[in-house]
Amino acid sequence: MIKLYHYVHCPFCVRVRLGLGFLGLKFESIVLPYDDEETPIKLMNKKMLPIVEFENGDLSNESLDIIKRIDKENLLSNEGSSDQELEELLSRIGSDVHSLCMPYWMWTPEFNKESRDYFQKKKEIKRGPFNKLIQDKEKYLSSFNETTKIIETKLTPYYQSESFTIKDIMLASHLWGMYIFPEFQFSKKIHSYLQEIKKITNFEYHEDFWN
Ligand SMILES: N[C@@H](CCC(=O)N[C@@H](CS)C(=O)NCC(=O)O)C(=O)O
User: Fold this and answer.
1) Domain identity same for 111 and 61
2) Measured by CB atoms within 10 angstroms of the end CB, which terminus of the chain is less buried, N or C?
């Protein structure tokens, strides 16, 4: 069985879960504590997830390569708008969602005291103190809301497509983390889009912590 090492909050890891789920592939789910440096370095020589170990022992830690490899029948074909446009959208989403959500993700069940401290220390180097991110939330929220208006114009009902594609995996996984942000609601259109994706990919964000 395919083994997936992942972080729940990481959008690139969510990509792989959505891909596996859509294709109906069973996998062993291993949520690594965020402060575990040893496991990813032992497997891939760097601390970066997702890592997939395929049934033949091959390893990969590039989300899109992983999805291409498991999508043997090319069911997630990638036609339509240029990748550049989606990349720009993802980078806009990423910068606001990360600033808004990091101070909250660290209180979700994938973290314990040690991994939370490690996460905060590491992420504050790039983004600045988490309490400042929280103080500035209106700025990030208003920018994110502008981006969601653009997204809405692209859903037909999937991202510039009538059917589900790899682009929906990329978009949805970047948006998903906002379900953790307090006081935030997606518009009905985007929420319905994400919930439809949840259904067809059999995705449950925190299912690893149900038992
Ligand atoms: N290009 C990689 C990017 C994966 C990535 O950026 N993973 C982040 C988590 S979101 C990571 O593991 N960073 C190292 C760390 O957070 O310690 C992919 O698409 O899979």
Assistant:
1) no
2) C
